[in-house]
């Protein structure tokens, strides 16, 4: 038996769940499917920039979001001896109309999941429905899943970095592009450092960087970035989301002396340390065809150097809902035309920021961060 819905969203991540909420706010019925048998609060910390927080506030989630997240007031750059090189205000403290939040990705996902089920009904998010493919014909789409077929007028692929929908639409070469950086990530249960509202970037010797910030609920998120290879297409043996011995990471931090943080101890306090290659993909010349489109990482995976990946998925969701509400027939293409250009700019800006990030000159850091805000539309004039 084939089920039916107005809009089918593949992927119950941050982008897919936010899309269900924004569509519901404009009166459009949707169903979200996911391959996981159970949706659990997995992952580590992410940042939500003010332009994304604005959209979640508009969805009535301001109080719940503030309850689970930390609100950074500044980002500060240090050397491995803990000397401050540059600091810049963020969120409300930086003159924005909305705060910036740092939050555990899984906790944010559970907040969105609860809101979707409360507003759209308990059957609005379906698990154990791994996507095998889809067929588009006669003004509708049939998605083939592990639990059977689902018919929809519109199909949105929000199924992440390894998107089945993207692979089905774009069958030519579309490699993951590796920066050459290996990222070790974790969330340590520990008190926040400094004033409790600082995002810290520590630039060590040999190109090793530490990015760390509180994410609420008594946890501090951290990422250690280690140069490993020359940039290029990601090789098949690069390792992905694999547990790592914390001792491997602690070795990279040997000799660091931060008076305000014992970085090696923070890694040791982390229950699970995971490794990832820092990757993105080249922007696509087009996203969808007919009644099918892409959203979030499925459409525009980017380096996590500008705290912008999750934020861009949330903005995608708002634009998608607005354009479909404005014109149900032409809305998908209008959404793509808007978001393709904007997210391509962010991908380029993230690459540029990564390549220019070796300096600790205060003047250069100020120029780099200001240019990034301008290039990504995240400055105070537009946020």
N to C succession of SSEs: EHEEHHEEEHEEEEHEEEEEEHHEEHHH
Mean pLDDT: 92
Q: What class would the helix/strand composition place it in?
A: alpha/beta
Question: Radius of gyration, Cα only, in angstroms?
Answer: 21 Å
User: What fraction of residues sit in β-strands?
Assistant: 25-35%
Strand tally: 18
Residue share in helix: 25-40%
- Major β-sheet annotation: 9 strands, mixed
Low-confidence stretches: none
Shape: globular
Termini, distance in Å?
Answer: 46 Å
Helix count, per DSSP? 10
Description:
There is one protein chain. With 383 residues, this protein is an alpha/beta fold. Strands 4, 5, 11, 12, 13, 14, 15, 16 and 17 form a nine-stranded mixed β-sheet that branches. Strands 1, 2, 7, 8, 9, 10 and 18 form a seven-stranded mixed β-sheet that branches. It starts with a strand and ends in an 8-residue tail after the last helix.
Compact description:
By secondary structure, this protein is an alpha/beta fold. It has helices at residues 14-25, 50-58, 62-68, 105-120, 164-169, 246-252, 263-268, 309-326, 331-355, 362-375; strands at residues 3-10, 30-33, 45-48, 74-79, 84-89, 101-104, 125-126, 131-137, 140-145, 148-157, 177-189, 198-203, 209-216, 219-227, 232-233, 242-243, 274-280, 292-294.
Topology:
Layout: E1 3-10, H1 14-25, E2 30-33, E3 45-48, H2 50-58, H3 62-68, E4 74-79, E5 84-89, E6 101-104, H4 105-120, E7 125-126, E8 131-137, E9 140-145, E10 148-157, H5 164-169, E11 177-189, E12 198-203, E13 209-216, E14 219-227, E15 232-233, E16 242-243, H6 246-252, H7 263-268, E17 274-280, E18 292-294, H8 309-326, H9 331-355, H10 362-375
Helix pairs in contact: 1-4, 1-8, 2-8, 8-9, 9-10
